[in-house]
Amino acid sequence: MSVFLGTGVALVTPFDNDGNVDVQALEKLVEFQIDNSVEYLVILGTTAEVATLSNEEKELVKTTVINKNDNRLPIVLGIGGNNTRAVIQEINHTDFKGISAILSVSPYYNKPTQEGIYQHYKAIAEICPVDVILYNVPGRTASNLLPSTVLRLASIPNIIGVKEAKGDMDQALKLIKLLPKDFLVISGDDMVALPIVLAGGAGVISVIGQAFPSEFSEMVRLGLSDKARASFEIQYRIQDSISLIFSEGNPSGIKALLENIGLCNGSLRLPLVKASEGLQSELKQFLEVFYVASK
After folding, report:
1. 67 closest CA partner among 47, 95, 46
2. CA distance 140 to 24
3. Exposed, middle or buried: residue 92 (CB in 10 Å: 0-12, 13-18, 19+)?
4. How many CB atoms neighbour CB 221 within 10 A?
5. Is 163 a catalytic residue?
6. Per residue in 235-291, pLDDT tens?
7. 172 by DSSP, 3-state: which?
8. Which of 58, 62, 163, 255 is catalytic?
9. Gap between the Cα atoms of 249 and 155, Å rounded
């Protein structure tokens, strides 16, 4: 059974009031996930604001999470880009101790053909010393990694799954139907994670899951056990918060929620800005209702 079956959480990068990486808050966030039984951690992805981190800061985040985790959970490291040579160079210069796999976003901005996407991933997989999870997120990349291309890539031994974040159940169902049973179709959208799991998907790489790790991971586990009614009861309790945290973009919403819970500062780096007062108020109201219902 894959170690990536269930709930992975895409961790934010907490910043302090001076805009520096907040190591203590990051450690607290990691421990919160482990204490609440998520299956794995995902670092230095979109939610981590990786585009605004220096190489030194990325290394600090990686080292902090690995050390705090202390081999308790598998860790997936985000390494991707639209320059294949640069991605390969980054992989070649990365210390993978404590890392189980990479999550690699489909090339953005260049808008490559499906053959170009295939050759990009093939070149990465050939030199990567750990497993590779594809990441399809057309809303950010301006190109769609088609199921037929994923099927071709699935024949490469260390490409083990795809994080599917098109937000299209039809495409997700095609992936689940087409791909080998041991190839992981992982939801990249919190709102449709449970339907994808119930249809045969492997789980989710979640944003909201880091705020409600116990509840969200239990929902996914129930789904994987074909306990649809019980899993949807948790889905409906969390559902409004998913819409809220993405209403002003990611990760401003999740950081505002984490600040309300007391896990980290809600600050972001430009060009991203903190959640509006209106959204922060709505999140506070949600939490009040959520915690009352949880008692």
Report:
1. 95
2. 30
3. exposed
4. 18
5. yes
6. 999 999 999 999 999 999 999 999 999 999 999 999 999 999 999 999 999 999 998
7. helix
8. 163
9. 35
In CATH terms, 6-224 corresponds, of 3.20.20.70, 2.60.40.10, 3.20.20.150, 3.20.170.30, to 3.20.20.70
Annotated catalytic residue 122: no
Catalytic residue among 62, 118, 135, 255: 135
**190-208: pLDDT as tens digits:** 999 999 999 999 999 999 9
- The neighbour count for residue 182, using CB atoms within 10 Å, is 11
- Quick one: tokens of 247? 């209403």
The CA-based dihedral angle spanning residues 7, 273, 103, 208, taken in that order and rounded to the nearest 10 degrees: 10
Question: Which residue in this structure is represented by tokens 């598998």?
Answer: 74
Question: Six-digit token pair at 277?
Answer: 């007062």
The owner of tokens 């559902």 is: 239
